[in-house]
Amino acid sequence: MNKVYEICHVNTEIKNSLTVSDRRNALCKMLTCDDPAAALREAVDNRSMEKIVPEFCSLKMRQNPNCRHKDVLAHTIEVVAMTPSDLVVRLAAFFHDIGKPRTRRYTEGEVTFRHHEIVGSKITEKRLAELEFDEDIIEDVTELVRLSGRFKGYDSGWSDSAVRRYARDAGHLLGSLNQLVRADCTSRNPRKRVRLRELVDDLEHRIALLAAADRKAAERPQIDGNAVMAHLGVGPGPHIGRALAWLLDVQKACGELEIDDLHARLDVWWAENRAEFE
Fold this sequence. Notes:
Number of helices: 15
């Protein structure tokens, strides 16, 4: 194993005197080095992690004491190692289950971690702020932690609106969120790992198709020429082309409107412009 950064090998007296900058830099170096798994394990073992993000050490617990699953700490370290070497994504992987110790409950023999992503996002925001990370990094990592569980349930079937909502909520973090989701499967069962990759591939494909369809829809007005003529009670002519051009401007500016609202706006436009075509 490569030697972990010197800052993680200091004695207790020096650990107690670490500055905020020292702790932040130590975490960044561990997460972005060639072997983040080894660096994180050593930081936990030599207790230097207690001075950086103490909640991380609390992850050493089994998801379910009645099962032989790896503990949350081992899972988290593996997820970090499986993500691309990008600080924001690796910070999100590092914190994505940080809320589990505070949300673990036993109900009828089952272990639950309800809303651990929400609790975890608050812990993440607090710790990153204390470590004086840039505000943009704090916001992005906190949001990724909050959204990290959104993909669950996709295999049971999502409507197009649910897929759009997932992409819309992720916004500019969509690619990073999907990278985190891909890494968040550390099952020893190869079929489960392959299945997860297939599901994420399918989700990304659907997002791309729906985005293309939405772009195409935005390039044409909400109603066609026949609907314009039927509503206004007029025949074909240059006025229909002008009406469609105006409707396209409305579509681009306002998106899809309730049909009654759209008709009302069309009536106003026609009242203001019909004299030009008579």
